[in-house]
Amino acid sequence: MVNNSKVIDLVVKKDLCIGCGICVFKCPNKALEMHWNESGFLVPKQIGSCDCNGDCLKVCPFNPFPKEEVKTEDELAKIYLNEATHSHKKIGKYIDIYAGYANEFRLTSSSGGIATYVLTQLLEKGIVDHVFSTKNSTEPGVHYEYAISSNKKDLFAASKTRYFPVTLATLMPEIHKLKGKVAIVGVACFIKAIRLAQHTEPKLKDKIPFLVGIICGGVKSRFFTEYLASKVGVLKENIKNPQFRIKDFNSSAGDYSFGCTNKTDDTLKSIKMRTVGDMWGTGFFKSNACDFCDDVTTELADISVGDAWLEPYVNEGKGTNVIATRSKIADNIIKQGIKKGDITIETLPLERFLASQQGSFNHRHNGLSVRIKKTKKNNITVPPKRFGDEKVNIFFNIVQKLRMRVRLKSLELWKTNPDAVIFDKRIKIYLKPIRIVTRLYHLRRDIINKLKKYKF
Fold this sequence. Notes:
There is one protein chain. The chain is an alpha+beta fold. Helix content is 36%, strand content 18%. The chain folds into three domains: 6-220 and 286-356, no CATH class; 222-275, no CATH class; 360-452, no CATH class. The chain has helices spanning 6-12, 22-26, 55-58, 73-80, 114-124, 152-156, 188-200, 203-207, 222-231, 328-340, 350-356, 358-366, 368-376, 394-416, 420-452; strands spanning 32-36, 42-46, 86-88, 92-94, 96-102, 130-136, 144-149, 182-186, 210-214, 239-246, 257-262, 267-272, 303-307, 321-325, 343-347. The longest helix is centred in the last third of the chain and has 33 residues, at 420-452.
């Protein structure tokens, strides 16, 4: 076997693969296929000889050596989002910003149902004929996968957030066989990979005229699902239909539950996520690649949707979206939806939109310099980034390094003993330092903010 797959050598072996699977689609030798790695992520594996001279690497969102014309999200946005009239360094190009929900889909969606509404409009207006999004999988142990929806009923079954690894490698190889046009739903890295594929194969722009971007807090390992199931007493082999965002309509937006059915007795087991602890700020079970992504708001999609973690929206348990439109088609769908009364939407000031994702900006933008510096010491080349030169104080620096440690340890500990009770006991030694230093960091920040109010 000729071992010449650059994406394997430069991305997968460096633990920078996110599992999008576009490299599998673009490999002319069919030398790659997706498989589960030991940390519970989907990554490509070389199964045959490869002499494609890097075609797989050209579409990788974590390519460490991209061409100048597609060097970062900024360059790609200039190619694909030239209808956008505004631009901001943290959120990219956009037409308008909103907050609200879809009246029909709000209660059955993880957030405000805007993504489902936009997709139904795309189908009904004939803009696309099919949608690639995540649905339940029939494969044992693989709870979710990308599937095709060609009508409103199918879309309705795909209107939930899935914190479980999926890959586009299952569908993209079939895209040219499908009659008609396709819209694709994805997180930032998946959307970037599709844009890179469109750049290498321009006819894909016509085939895929619309991308819906989901604002993402990080891709989780399958261990995340197994851990939560273990918390409610369900063994991993007995997990059925895991649900990650079960809303409490009578509570707040953040007061949601995880639930899954136990195959042994077909009973639903659930737990409030607030009782589990911080699964996001600590980096539990997160992909290493996510620590080197600086696209917080899925900048390359036609429309970006996320949770409105803002007052007064967070007080409403039914769910509300923040929305950034980046193409005329997207903005027209929103504006027409407002006129028809299909959606309850209000324009959101820029500073409010930024505030809704402030935690992610702090981690992905301000903390990026710490992670890049640490990674370079290990002789690993990361992709070109638009952030990473920011100066940080000593406490913030230590917090970032401790998060990297906790992320890695969470995967190692679960892999060796997949039991939530044992895991919680063993992870404490790694959580205690990060909690202490985080408190010191917050104390320093609060003191500085108070001092700024005074003039000396």
